[in-house]
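Think of the structure tokens as a kind of shorthand, similar to the way a musician reads notation: each symbol stands for something richer, in this case the local conformation of the backbone. In the example below we present two proteins back to back. Begin with the first one, reading the sequence and then the tokens, and try to describe in your own words what changes along the chain.
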Amino acid sequence: MIRVLLADDEHLIRGALASLLALEDDITVVAEAGSGDEALAMARAHRPDVAVLDMRMPGRDGVSVAARLREELPECASMIVTSHAGAGALKQALAAGVRGFVPKTVSARRLAEIIRTVHTDGRYVDHELAADAIAAGESPLTPREAEMLSLAADGAPVAEIASRAALSPGTVRNYLSAAAAKLGAENRHVAARIARERGWL
């Protein structure tokens, strides 16, 4: 049996996936988690063969969970299931040792096949996600600009961003203005949305 951990903060999706995977003769869901930290705890406790991780979860995201699992439980293969993908996200996932990268629109039957592939040391990257990632290209943002946009993405004011980044408000404005100019965005909020859609944050 292939022992699987499912991690997704959307309970309905996670529950439906668990039920559908339970119909497979060679797959058993040994643990479920609703956050990145819970996923790590469940992986440590249940030692699954494959971790199926949502890209975006509360706390740690799927990529950071996969990176930790590679260090702590190298026998556990990780795969990302996402509705948000871009060049940056795909590259980060592959760098973290993720062996599968699939959209949430995949059927349960296909997901089971991909779990089997990943379990036998194979790799699977959805061709549409890969094409989208390639089309998005490399990020024009510097690491500091990307960091400032990430902090601005939830609508935080400049003063709060400056406090969190230990920078002056003027310096933060300069980084955000430069990032917005590079992305052709009228303000930092639009710039953050564009960068996130392209997988650069």
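Once you have a description of the first chain, move to the second and do the same.
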Amino acid sequence: MNILDKIIVDKKREVILKKSIIPVSQLEASVFFEKKTISLSTNLRHSTSGIIAEHKRRSPSKAEINYSFTVEEVTKGYENAGACGISVLTDGKYFGGSLDDLLLARATVNIPLLRKEFIVDEYQILEAKAYGADLILLIAAVLTREEIKALSEFAKKLGLEVLLEVHNQEELEKSIMPSLDMIGVNNRNLKTFEVSLDFSKQLANQIPDDFVKISESGISSIEAINELKPFGFKGFLIGENFMKTDNAGQAATEFIKQIAH
């Protein structure tokens, strides 16, 4: 069993537990439930930088990245830096995140927020909306075509955008459908953790132009972004590169300034 399989087994258990404690009616009563969401895909189409900055304390591949900032400091810093959107990891066991991180981010900034999570159930999409997210992530590697369709259509009904993450051609082919807004190529193989920008380059032509193309993971330089832009990528998800510094907002500011030139 690889790390991804383990995460999904734990996640399914976690969702069952949460459902038994917090009823759907309580999520639907959240102040954010009726709030109009902010479109990341629109922001990316009109941006010169395309940066989606990530709040991430740790990951299975890097035990600890950074625990020394508050969510407010990081997300405010990202917004001031000119990020198009912010990805907030809400998985506790493997990434040290929580839904409270999403809530604090929403209270702090007014740009699109992605709930970065291993979504396996509609309940998690209701949580995303209740805690202030504007879009959700679906990971093709862990979902069937039917599940991607059902979950993405459910998200759209709630006014949330959908970013679908793929890693290879097979995942991309099974996933393309109208209920997605953005398709992200993960440059990290979730099974081996090997990272290469070639994954993005190889899949770029096969992603229809109706979807905003995003490249995720392993992007740590302006050169990498300049290399990916000719392939039609409009969004670049960057987490560790900013989080491992002493000031994530400052790191993002300097990075984004360089792209704009």
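Compare your description with these statements about the second chain. The chain has one domain: 3-260.
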